[in-house]
Every structure is written in C-alpha cells, then in structure tokens.
Amino acid sequence: MAAGFSGGQVLTGLRLATMAAPGTGTIPDGVIAIRDGHIAFAGPAEELPREMARWPGRDYGGRLATPALIDCHTHLVFGGHRAREFALRLEGASYEEIARAGGGIRSTVTATRSASDGELLAGALTRLDAMIAEGVATVEIKSGYGLDLETELRMLRVARALGQARQVRVVTTCLAAHALPEEYTGRSDAYIDLVCDRILPAAAAEGLADAVDGFCEGIAFSPEQMARVFAAARALGLPVKLHAEQLSNLGGAALAARHGALSADHLEYLDAAGVQAMAAAGTVAVLLPGAFYTLRETQAPPVALLREAGVPIAVATDANPGSSPMTSLILALNMACTLLRLTPDEALGGATREAARALGLGAETGTIEAGKAADIAIWNIETPEELAYRIGDNPLHQRLTGGRA
Ligand code: NIG
Ligand code: FE
C-alpha cells in the first residue's frame, strides 16, 4: 500500500458486493478506502468521507469487488494421491467399503507418514496456489493423516509454514480423531486416549491448533468418543467442529452444537432435531459439494430446513485426496447451487461471510465493511451471480489481503 500522508489509499470505480448480509445486492459506483490493512470506508463514491478523498486512488473501471474468498474446510496437507480408489469406486466399490478394506484415509496416512516435511509442503503449496489464484485469502487446513503424535504435529507445522510461504491467512485444525490408525485396530478407545491425553495437549502447547475437529461416523468414531475429544479440547481452550452426518445419522451435529461447535460439516444425513440444535447454538452448517459429487451421493443436506431455522450456511472445497480432490472454491460455489440448491447469493455468502463465521473470524474478515481486514477480490465480471454460474472459468482480476496485492 502506498504510504500517503494519512497512510491510506482508495479503490474507485468498483461495483461493490459487500456481502454484509444476505441479499444486500451491489453498489454500482462504489469505493473502498483502506488504511493500515483495514477497510476505513466502503460504500457509494459520493459518501466517501472528505479526508479519505485526498488519499491516493486506483481506478478499477467498473469491475466487481467482493470479499476475498474463504475456504473454511480443507485437508490441504497430505502425501500421495488416491486415483486408484477413484477407479475402484467407478467399478462399484463404495467409499465405506474401500475404507473398511484398509484403503481410504488409512492409505493417505501411510503416504503422509513416509513423506518428508519438504514433500508435504511442496504438495500443499501447489494446491494452495490454485486457491490463491481464485481469490482465496483465508484457508482452514486440517491435520488428520498422521494419526500419531509426531505426524499430526508435523502436518500442523507444515500448515503454519504455508501461511508464512504465501500471503494468506491460515487457520489450523487438529483432526487427530479422523480415523483409527492401523496399529490401534480393535482399540479405538485407547486411540481416543492418545488424542485427548497426548496429541491435543502437545498441539495446543506448541500453538499449532486453532481448533479441534473429528469424524463422527460408523467407519470412524462414535458420538461418545467425540464427546471425549470435545471435552479435552474445551479443557485446552480450543473451539470445536465436526465432520457429521456425512454417510449416516449418528446425531453428530447435535452433539457438536451442544459443545458450542463453530461448525458441523457435510450434513447430508442431518435430521430436523440436528437442524434445531445447530440453530439454537449458532453452529454454522458447512456444505461440501465436492464430496457430495465425488461420492455420487444422492441424499442432499436439508438446505430448506437449515434456511427455515436460520442456520448460517457456509460452502467449502473439503480439498482432500479421497472424497473431494478439488481445489476450486469457485467450482464449489457452482456445485452448491446446481447440486444442493443454494442461491448464488447464499453460495457466495457461504464462501465469504459465513465461512469467516465458521472459523470464528466473523469480526475480522468475510465482508467488505469498515473495520474489517482489507481482504478483497476484484473480478472481471459484473454481477456476483456470475461467479457461481460459469464452470471452469476464473475471472479473478486481483486479490488483496490486508490491502496488499
Ligand atoms: O471430509 N469425511 C472424512 N474426511 C474427509 C475425507 C478424507 C479422505 O477420504 O481422505 C472428508 O470427506
Ligand atoms: Fe473434510
């Protein structure tokens, strides 16, 4: 940012989609004043405060500005790939059958444990760069392919390193309760002991985890086991979230809500009671259309019920080597509309305002409003709907994080 006399700059000639609330629409002749990395003013040009009108300006020729995108659910750090399983699923094997036969998450655990830090970083950087190229300024990154103390911490350190390597805000999540590692076969409670007594405390002590997540499912952990993980997280002062109701209904979302979870994610098999519990707790529903698509799921999450109950809805890529080998958040917006029936406004709000809320960052980013970080995406399109509408198109003109291009 140009260090003017007042230290500010003004972006002019913008069509502004502030995404401050659902259905806000756009401001045709908008400006954004930025100072110290934060938004000082955003609104119609004629309302720009006089002292800011003296700051150096940059004209954007009528382009659309939205909040920079936020991917609030990813597994970006992992070793290897699972293209073989993709082929097996096409031959009829289910995600659960592959997992029970020792493939799935466990095969990525093997590849991740044997990868060096440098290899993990290089692989994740390629994926992160694809996201940044689409206007993502904040990304959540989970562990969960280590499933032992050393590798879980290594994954989280690599996630932190990604935030140093690029101009992007990285939020880390410890997902040690993702699957049962092979060496604990038949002893899943003992593995939960390891998670609660060793892995989470170590991650917290090193400042490596901003939140704690788990996978509550027949092929993973029970609600009782997840309740133990949540209690351990709370004792460490860490917020929680959960992969819930992806393949079946175990009441995971309601459990997460009772623990004050930031979000419950996937939710294809969520029922009305789960929706009500989430609404009461203010837990965000994170929809992951890439996993829905990849697993050829036919039961969609109960979007109408979520909407009716006022549950905030976010959209993310779930980028991972198994159920969602996708790094395009823009494509996720399209899928959220076409497959899950979100409106384009809901989809974009889900990858900005509500995604920020799902990360506990609602006061810092996710909308274009005075006081928030100047995390802004400027696009070569005219309306916000166009972002979700085309397939395979990347209309990004420029991404600003904290006001910096
Ligand atoms: O979000 N549901 C569990 N975890 C991931 C998939 C991980 C994997 O298959 O490697 C998900 O879909
Ligand atoms: Fe996931």
From TrEMBL:
Residues engaged in binding 4-imidazolone-5-propanoate: R82, Y145, H178, Q246, S323
Free-text remark on how the cofactor is bound: Binds 1 zinc or iron ion per subunit.
Residues holding Fe(3+): H73, H75, H243, D318
InterPro entries xrefs: Amidohydro-rel, HutI, Metal-dep_hydrolase_composite, Metal_Hydrolase
Keyword Cytoplasm: yes
Pathway assigned to this chain's UniProt record: Amino-acid degradation; L-histidine degradation into L-glutamate; N-formimidoyl-L-glutamate from L-histidine: step 3/3
This protein's UniProt keywords: Cytoplasm, Histidine metabolism, Hydrolase, Iron, Metal-binding, Zinc
Localization: Cytoplasm
Cofactor: Zn(2+); Fe(3+)
HAMAP family reported in the protein's UniProt record: HutI
PANTHER family: IMIDAZOLONEPROPIONASE, IMIDAZOLONEPROPIONASE-RELATED
Entry function: Catalyzes the hydrolytic cleavage of the carbon-nitrogen bond in imidazolone-5-propanoate to yield N-formimidoyl-L-glutamate. It is the third step in the universal histidine degradation pathway.
Family: Belongs to the metallo-dependent hydrolases superfamily. HutI family.
Designated name of the protein: Imidazolonepropionase
